[in-house]
Amino acid sequence: MEANEIQALRAATSGTAERIHFNNAGSSLPPDVVLETVIGYLKEEALLGGYEIEAAYKSPLENVYASIGRLINASVEEVAIVENASMAWHLAFNAIDFQRDDEVITSEMEYVTNLIGFLNLQNHQGIAVKVIPNDARGNFSLSALEEAITPRTRLIAITQIPSTAGNVLPVAAIGAIARRHGILYLVDACQSAGQIPLDVKEMGCDMLSVTGRKYLRAPRGTGFLYVRKEVQDKLKLLFMDGHSTKAVTEEGFTLRDDARRFELYEKNRALVLGLGKAIDYALAIGVDRIWQRIQYLAGLMREKLAALPGITVHDSGDQQCGIVTFSVAGVESTDVKARLAAKKINVSVGKASSTLVYMNKHHLTSIVRASVHYYNTEEEIDELCANIMAILS
Predict the structure, then answer these.
(1) Where is the Aminotransferase class V domain (predicted)?
(2) Do 24 and 193 contact (CB within 8 A), yes or no?
């Protein structure tokens, strides 16, 4: 991306004038057009009525499914819009009809919400959970995955980009293994969507969970679930309402023929439109170009932080993303965050619980997480480093 394009994108994001935002893995600053879309719809809803405005916006609301399909290379029949990635993930995971002694294989980078889901079924239904450790270079071991698979393996569940580490897991290679063995495959793309190009066909995944608020730059309270058409009838529904069905009689009902069976009717239509606008915004820029820019900025940040005395950068693995994790010698991560916030620089603190297996393995209780997006600049990275030096002095 050229400098003039970056400046134009920053000008279209009012928040960039207020502070330096390196908490994009938490919640990105939305483009102004996303904010205007949400507020505009809410104003019309307040003036004319919720159902009436929903009917007037039927086509734009429907187009959000098409935008999601373009983002991940899926059909609209394979997409359900939900409130967040945790809801999407649990709708998929808990839809699987697990039997006692079934096995779930995951990685040491799995997110806490997903880990809780595993532990819950382990305790109540007797499933077994196998964790594939990273190798010495910080990469997910495909050979260890192959060795872990048995006839009881029911699911491979992988978080593509972890919450408190900078590496990227090889989801397509994992998907090829899952396909070869006929195992269901669930990918958590919470940190991936909007940061890295996604293609569910290339991944070979059966289910994919996504949030809107992170790298997609959509409003909080938005997300979606992808469910491959061929597995939809193999999954049970946790919740149902009239929206989930295509026919109801006094004797029974027939489910919809698409992934919207996993939705409930009532949701915030203004936020749905905001999600669609954010996805269209990313697609117009080009997710491949976004990914190149993020890799460049994150690499620069790691290089500059690693050169500072007293700073330990924790990221490993052959492919790294826009999440940069580090520690400041002698200073608690929460204190680093607070002192940077006083200078109008946003970062986050990654707690041990967020990626429990990985953090415990490396004896980390917390880290500072600085996550870049394409609208960040080299000058902002320099200012972050200068302020960290001030903390150390």
Answers:
(1) 22-384
(2) no
